[in-house]
Amino acid sequence: MSAGRLRAIERAVLRPGARDVGGLGAAVAGQLARLAGDLAAAGSARTRVGLVTGVHIAWAPTPAAETDGPVGTAVLAAALAALGAEPVVLTDDPCAEVTGACLGVLGAGRLTVVPVGADEPAVAARVAGLGLSHLVAVERLGPNAEGRVLTMRAVDITASTAPLHAAFALPGLVTGAVGDGGNEIGMGNVPAEVVAACVAAGAQIACRVPVGALVTAGTSNWGCYALVAALAVLAPGHGSALRALLDPAVDAAVLAAATAAGGIDGVTGRPGASVDGVPTADYADLIRDLRGLAHA
User: Does the predicted TM-score (pTM) go above 0.90?
Assistant: First the structure.
């Protein structure tokens, strides 16, 4: 029964956001259940889980951090705390204020900020010192085959992106990711030719950093909500607290905090009540559907 419900949750968040992610999702079918199981185990063991997020939208009229990623990360951090894990959220300077504002709404997740100028060995050493058992990227862009970090518009933001991807090669970590565009950490799980076929400029922007399990969704925030729903299925003793997070009002409150802190829609490049160009009113039903599926 739970396996079927997890598959339904995984399919639900493949609803198109800024783009059709069905092809990416087909390439990693079943990996949501694997990542949710890993995170449920972290909760049971009360270990420390790292969540990496934040994208700097350099091409926007006023360059800023986008709201897709930090919003969902805050909700996922609250879910992990409810399970007994200790969430630690990592980002870099350009995304720190927005990410911190999101975490403040739900009061879960200690923020760690890595300087943009840090090199890969420094990042790896910093993360190794945190004592993490798991590391999950949420809408965090990573390098393509040439080592450059590119947005969906193929804008090179390597210079304003700390190389947090380096931490995913640390030994002993259980890793995962959530993404929606082919250029995020974790998309190394999807064959390069699939990214090229499914995403505009996919051959150019595709991130090749793999993880243990990848969740794809119409927006990465939705992917986080899918993980929360899956955790409620796998840990029914915490179901009530987890389902309470799957509420359009929670999403709206965290998004409002992100926007007040300077966050912008990653597609429009402007602040507002939308994520990746999708108004909040247009995906409220999806959040409610996930809550309905989040019963064991």
Answer: yes
Give the pair of three-digit tokens for residue 206. Answer: 């595709």
Task: Please say whether the beta carbons of 138 and 217 come within 8 A.
Answer: no
Non-local (6+) Cβ contacts of 268 within 8 A are: 274, 277
Under DSSP, is residue 153 helix (H, G, I), strand (E, B) or coil? coil
For 199, half-sphere exposure in the C-beta direction (CA atoms, 13 angstrom radius) is 31
User: CA 270 to CA 74: how far, in whole Å?
Assistant: 21
Amino acid at residue number 58: A
CATH number at residue 118: 3.90.1640.20
Other Cβ atoms within 10 Å of 145 Cβ, number: 11
Quote the number of domains for the chain. Answer: 1
Q: Give CA–CA dist 81/46, Å, rounded.
A: 9
Torsion region of 30: left, alpha or beta (phi above 0 gives left; psi -120 to 50 gives alpha): left
| pLDDT tier at 296, thresholds 50, 70, 90 | low
- Calpha distance 279→94 (Å, rounded): 24
Would you mind telling me the total number of residues written for the chain in this entry?
A: 296
How does residue 268 score in pLDDT terms, banded at 50, 70 and 90? very high
Q: What gap in Å lies between CA 278 and CA 244, rounded to an integer?
A: 23
The CA distance from 281 to 296, in Å, is: 27
Assess contact for 294 and 286: CB atoms under 8 A. Answer: no
Chain centroid to Cα 100, Å, comes to: 15
Q: What domain range includes position 96?
A: 2-293
